[in-house]
Each structure stands twice: as structure tokens, then as C-alpha cells.
Write a structure and sequence with these properties.
Pfam families: HxlR
Organism: Pullulanibacillus pueri
Largest sheet: 3 strands, antiparallel
Helix content: 40-55%
Mean pLDDT: 91
Strand content: 5-15%
GO molecular function, one term: DNA binding
Number of helices: 6
Order of helices and strands: HHEHHEEHH
Keywords: DNA-binding, Transcription, Transcription regulation
Protein name: MarR family transcriptional regulator
Length: about 100
């Protein structure tokens, strides 16, 4: 029987946090739970986020299959963001965090 090194065992919470990303991701997800949004709508709704931080967050979530990015051939191009099934599955967890935050902070 092989000895297991506890340092090498992956934590599912850590894996989930790596997929979700930083604090801006939670705010983007909160907005997208309401439905499809454009970049400008997200920027307006999330106070304090820079365009660079929003772009980085959206790319991270897209790369982790949490959201989809759809580009429409208009001038200028229209880009919309929507949650995937994987992204929608985060709704319950985010809702529980919101409830906890309102109770304990």
C-alpha cells in the first residue's frame, strides 16, 4: 500500500476557487445570474472595476467554461456574455454566500 502525501492531495475548494477566480468574478457572476449582459452593462453595474480588470475576469471565466462570449457582426461589434450550465451551477453557492454576508458582516 502506497503512503499518500497530504501535500499532494488536491482540495476541491481550492480547485473551485481557481476556476472561479478573484473577487471580481463573484460580482460578474452575480450580474450574469440575472441574464445575458454586454461589457458596458457589466462595467456600469460593477462599481470600481477597471476595463482591464473586467476584461481579464471575463477571459478567465470564459477559459474555465463558466461563461460564453458571443460576438455579433455589427459596427462596432456587439459582444454579449452569458453563463454556461457550469456557470449556472454556481448560483446556489453564491446565493448562500450572499445570505451569510448579510447575516455576519
Amino acid at each position: 500500500m502506497e503512503a499518500t502525501n497530504p501535500e499532494l492531495i488536491e482540495c476541491s475548494i481550492e480547485k473551485a476557487l481557481n476556476v472561479i477566480g478573484g473577487k471580481w468574478s463573484f460580482l460578474v457572476l452575480k450580474e450574469l445570474f440575472e441574464g445575458t449582459r454586454r461589457f458596458s452593462e457589466l462595467k456600469k453595474a460593477i462599481h470600481g472595476i477597471s476595463p482591464t480588470a473586467l476584461t481579464s475576469t471575463l477571459r478567465h471565466l470564459e477559459n474555465n467554461e463558466i461563461l460564453t462570449r458571443t460576438v455579433y457582426p455589427t459596427v462596432p461589434a456587439t459582444v454579449e456574455y452569458a453563463l454556461t450550465e457550469k456557470g449556472q451551477a454556481l448560483h446556489k453557492m453564491i446565493k448562500e454566500m450572499k445570505i451569510w454576508g448579510s447575516k455576519w458582516t
